[in-house]
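Model: You mentioned two targets. I'll fold them one after the other.
Researcher: Yes, keep them separate.
Model: Target one:
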Amino acid sequence: MSGKGLGAVSGGGDDGGVADAASVLTQRTLPDTSEQNCSALHNGVVMSGEPHEPGNSSSSSQCSLHVWSKKALLSRKEIPKHLQFNPYIETGYRPLLSAWGCLMSLFYFHNETINIITHGVPMMYILVWWRSLLPWADITVPVLPWTHLVSTVSPWVGSTIYHLFMNHRAGESCYKSLLHLDMFGIWITQSFGALTTVYASVSCLSSAWIWRVLAVYCFVSLWCLYKALTARSAMARRRCFSLAVVMQLFVFYLRSTPFGGGDPHAVIHYVMQASHRPPPPTHPSHATPAWCFS
C-alpha cells in the first residue's frame, strides 16, 4: 500500500482503519521476509537481519514447504563458479548447503538426484549382499577376494559421497576434496580391481616373474593415481588410466599364449563382466590352483 493511501486512511481519524491498513501492510511484507528467512536457513547461513525463532511453527512450516519446492533450486548462473562445469545443464542446481542440508536433498528432485541414486543403489546392494558375490571357499589366495570386494564397492562409495555433498557450503576446497575422493574410488577399482585378472594371467610363470609383473603393475597404478589427483580437466582425468588399461590388455593377451594362465573358459566372462565359476576338476591331477595350459 502506498504512503498516500495510508495517509488517507489515517487522516480520517478512524483507529480501526489505521489498524486495518497496518494489518494489510504486514500481510504484504511477511511472505517476503518469511521466504528470505527460509532461503537463508536452507542455505545454512543467516542472510536476513531478523533471527530465526525455532518455536515459530508457522515459520518452520513455510520453510519446510520452501525446501521441498522448486524455489530452493537455482540456475547455473546463480551457483558458485566451481560448480558451473556443465554447460548443458542450466537449471535444477541446489544452493550451498550444510552437511545436513545435503543429506535432506535426498528427498527432493534436483539435477544430481539420478547420479546419487544410480551410484547409491549399487553401493547398498554390495554392502548388503557381499557374502554371496564371490565363491569364497574356492579361492586359495585369501587376499584376492577381499581386494576384489573393496575394489568393487569403492567407486560407488566415492561417487555417491561426491554427488551428494558436492554443493557443501564449505566451498571450492571441500569440492576438490570430494572430487579427489571420487577419483580415488575409481582408481581403486581400475587398479586393484584388475589385480585378480593380472595374477591369474601370470600364474603359470615362475615366482620371480610373477612378482616382477605385479611390481610393475603396482608402480603403473600409483602413477595413474598421481595423474588422476593432479588432472585439471575431465578429459585429463579419463586419460590418466590409459597406461594401466594398456597393461591389463597385455596380460589379457598373455592368457591366449602358452605362457599365460587363467581358466580359458573365463575369458568371455571377463569381457562381458559376468560372473564365472570354474567347472569341477574331472581328475585329481587337474585340481591345481591356476589354470595353466599349453
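Model: Target two:
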Amino acid sequence: MQRITISVVVLAALVYYVTFAPPNKYLIDINPVAYSAKPVNIFDGPIKPNNILSKAEHLLVNDIHGPESLVYKNGHLYATTFGGMVVRIEGSRIVPIAKIGDGKCDVPSKLSECGRPLGLRFNSRETLYVVDAYHGLYSIDSIDTLDRKVTQLLPLSATRNLKGGESKFFDDITVEEGAGKNGGDVIYITDVGTKWDLSAFINIIIEQENSGRLLRFDTDTKQVTVVDAGFVFPNGVQITDDENSVLVCELGKQRILRIFINGPKSGKTEIFANLPGECDNIRRSANAKTETYWVALPTVKDSSNLTMFDRVMESPLIRRFLCRFFNLSEIIVETMGELFYSESLKSAGHLFKNGMLALLFHGSAVIAEYDAKGQILAAYFSTTDEIGYLSEVTEVLGDNGERILYLGSFLNNFLGKLVLK
C-alpha cells in the first residue's frame, strides 16, 4: 500500500511539473487556449457517409512516399515527396525533376536539411513553382530537359522584416499570372506561422497559435508583403476564377476563408465555408463550365463521432501536458540515440512526438467538392483504413468524360486514384 501511495505521489508530481513548470530546455513554451470547433450535428445530405473513397486504387505502392501536392501537365502528373524531391510520374516510372535542400535524407530527423517540398503549381509558360516548408519558394524552368534550372526565389529568412517576424513554415502556393509589376507572376503563399516549424506542426493546432499569414510575392520586384494575418495553420490556397480572391484552408479553425485581393472588396476577408473537419489543400476542379473546388479533409467527424483531439480542445491544461510530455519523450529518445550512436533511435525520437499526437486526429478521411459560393456538392468517405491522411485532390478528365481524381497524401507510400463516372 505504501508503494502505491509513493507511486501516486511521484506520478502526480511529474504531471504537475510537466504542466506548470516554466519553459526550459526540456519543456517547450506552449500556452494553449480554449477552443471548440462545434462540429456538425450529424452527417446528412451531401455529406451523408458512404464508402466510395475506400474504393480508390493504390498506385506506385512503396515507390513513392508522401506525394503531398500534385499537378497535371502535358499528360503527366508532377508531385512533391519526402526526400526533398519534385518528381514526374510517367506511368509506373518516377522521374526526378529537382532536389530541394542540400542535406542527406537518410533519416527523418534530418528533414530540415533535406527539405520537404509541399505546394506545387505551373504557370502557362511551364515554369513550375514549388514551396518547401523549410527552404522557401523555388521556380523550376526547362523541366523537359536535362538542363533544368532550379532557382530559390524566396527563402524563409527574407520574411524576417515583415510584421509578425520571420516565418518558420511555408505550406502552399497559388499563382496570379501577369499581376507582377512588369507583367510577371504574383505568388500567394500560406505562411503557417512564426513560432513552430513543420517538425512541430501538431503544436500549432494544439496551441491554436495564430501567427499564420497569407503572403504575396512579386516575381518581378522580388518583394514579399503580408496580405492578411491572424490565422491558425493556414494550409491550402487557391485563386478563384475571377482572380478577385483567394481561398485559404484554415486547418486550425476547420474552415475556408475567402480573402479578396482585387476588386471592390479588396482587403476584406470572409468565411467561405465551415468544414466538418481539418482541411489540407484546395484545388480547382477540372469542370470548365462550372467553378467548383476539391478539398481534402484528412479527418472529419460529427457530434457523435468526435476525435480525442476534439474532446481535449476545451481543456488547455490537458493539451499543454500532452504536448510537453510527448516533446520531453522525444528529447529522451533522441538523447539515447546520441549516446548510443544510433540513427534509428534519433529517428524514432523525431517521429515519436508527432506520431503519438497524430493519434488524436484519427477519423474518417473525406474528399469534398464545393461550389463557388462555398456550398458542398458532394463528399466521398473512407470509413475504413483503406486510404487516409489525404492532402490533395487533383482532377483530370478522362477520354470518355469520366472524372479521374488523383489523391495526394503527406504520409502515404502510394498515390491514390478514384474514377467517378
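Researcher: Noted. Anything on target two?
Model: The CA atoms of residues 226 and 267 lie 11 Å apart.
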